[in-house]
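Support case: 1,3-dihydroxyacetonephosphate complex. Customer-provided input:
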Amino acid sequence: MSVADLVSTAEALVAKGKGILAADESAPTIKKRFDSIGVDSTEDNRRFYRELLFTTEGASNFISGVILFDETLRQLAGDGRSLSEVLLSEGIIPGIKVDAGAKDLAGFPGEKVTEGLDGLRDRYAEYRELGARFAKWRAVITIGDAIPTSGCIQANAHALARYAALAQEAGLVPIVEPEVLMDGYHTIERCAEVTTATLDAVYKELAESRVVIEGTLLKPNMILSGKSCSTQAGVQQVAEETIRVLKGSVPAAVPGIVFLSGGQSPEVATAHLNAMNAIGGVPWELSFSFGRALQETTLKAWGGNPSNLDNAQQAFYHRAKCNGAARFGDYSDKMENTEVNSEVRG
Ligand code: 13P
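Agent response - structure generated as follows:
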């Protein structure tokens, strides 16, 4: 794949009004999600649930790409096509999570480094054969007493850069995800400080590794008060702080920023994205790559019962549509008051 192809895939993933569905929960994470609705995490239940998401009529108006887990990229839909073929037939670009998870960083208590670089060149070649056109690697930075250390930020930034360079070599657009967790008592100012240090280290390493910035996307956290902080910043402050931090650290050559939701409620994540797009004046598309914030209501509506398929798909369609509106700054909480069941799809 040429640089031009990488750039056009990256741009298609942040097309106006659209964003990415992160459906790449690893086996332990999808089990946690299914546990919350009392459903066994069997291979068949996982396939059924993900097929439900991918075949939601009209969702492709708001969903440009889906990040898959290894198992899902190999699974077949009920009609015998692969799930990636199903997505492609709807004009949705399939992507793949390639990291092997965040593990304890030796010598740095309480901190993590993401593993998965060994053998990655060969895995990329196979994933491309299977239809993937972009990739995702998530680094995790924790805020706490005397952490993060620069050693942890550096180790994660370096791994992200090596992952991204290998992705582009294989013709896949790397989504670079350095997530500063919202867990903790820290203030929004501390989140801004740590996110700035993290993004600065990431872009320095990407440049050192000769990654073509135009052929990447950034998947950051929003700048939020820690979940347990006694003072919680409001929607407008979050939007302004997030834009300020990104403007200071993210090159204008990045085509798009696709936020993670990170444990925010679906409505709040959408409201934050909406407020940022209403402010505007930035060189990149501001979009979403939500996991929980797109799926929470769908999971509940499904509850593991195949007869709830319609309701579950309507719940997913509704959240996709709200986030699509937030891409233009056109979302309002009035959209939430519409009876989901009465939504007209299309
Ligand atoms: P959340 O939106 O649930 O944070 O998930 C996004 C994701 O892909 C995390 O790696």
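Residues 3-342 form a domain with the TIM Barrel fold (CATH 3.20.20.70).

Case will auto-close in a few days if no follow-up is received.
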